[in-house]
Amino acid sequence: MSHLEDLLTQMIRIPSVNPRGAGEPAETALAEFVADWGRAHGLETSLHEVADGRCNVIATLPGDTERPLLLETHLDTVETEGMTVDPFEARVADGRLYGRGSCDAKGPLAVFLTAMADLAAAGPRPQTVTLAGVVDEEHVYRGVQAMRAMDLAPFGAIVGEPTSMRMVTAHKGCMRCRITARGPGGHSSEPWGKTNPFDTAARIIDFLHGEHTAELDANPRPLIGPPSMTVTMIEGGSGPNVLPESVTMTVDRRTVVGEDPHAVWAELRDLLAARFGAQVEVAEPHVVDYALETDPADPFVSGFAGVLGAHGLDPAPKGVGHGTDASKIALDGVPSVVFGPGAIAQAHMPDEFVPLAELHEAHKVVAAALRTPFAPAIGGAL
User: Which CDD domains match (predicted)?
Assistant: First the structure.
């Protein structure tokens, strides 16, 4: 087993399931492991508590630039219920390494760490490299927001996620909120003249998935297409013979660059109020995220594309519909790309895995990128 596979195996065996809202230090054992492993391989490492004992880990390899190249990925994974493989065994079979996080995103984390360790051992170091392993990416992004507050001032960022070895430069953001339809309730044997919230909910869903979606389709963006609106959950009713007093729907509104998630929510609230009146309430968003649209002509981005091409990989920029930490990093004016082994279709799956061939190829790409002088040396113009 290679040192890359061995490292990934060890990290999969350390559970780091996101606790969602619970106050548990879920990722900290993994952060401590990464810090210890990094120090043993020549990196400067530190832990930074974000909330509830949950810690980000920062590892730095000083080089010949004042501003670092940032490698960022997340420590947390989604839940393990329903998995068809042992989530923490880290089993290898048929050229794949199975386990929760193997693809999303401990695989990219292992790639980043081993590439930095190789550079620490061999040199030279044309640029300073900083790795941030952050908490809470699978929930409300508190880890990356805490990292941004550290003012690391990177000149560029590679965000580790499963991208099937493509360079992602654009993705959608999101706004998630709950819409509640209300009615007077009552006995189900006497429904006449009463508003049934399920009827209202059905009309809302028909509008959102029909006329409103058609309006969104008229605003496509390069690589990622138009915004979207999807009702993903519906809850209501208290008994089979009781008219419900309320029905609540959760909506997932995917945003594109140029849309502010909070403004999108306000527009939706006003639109539904105008159509359905006071019987409908739109709660403030419980999740917001921003879209990413990195300029492929940026020198850092085009430089990374050149590294991909030199390894026989497709250097063309790609867009995806899901979100990543890259969009938050880009808010600070940092050109950001998303890259890593494995496919997003395999992330969160009952048999999550990463192909070993892609894992090793990703290591070669990142190792080459760390040796590519993207930024001016210390003393040069920025």
Answer: M20_ArgE
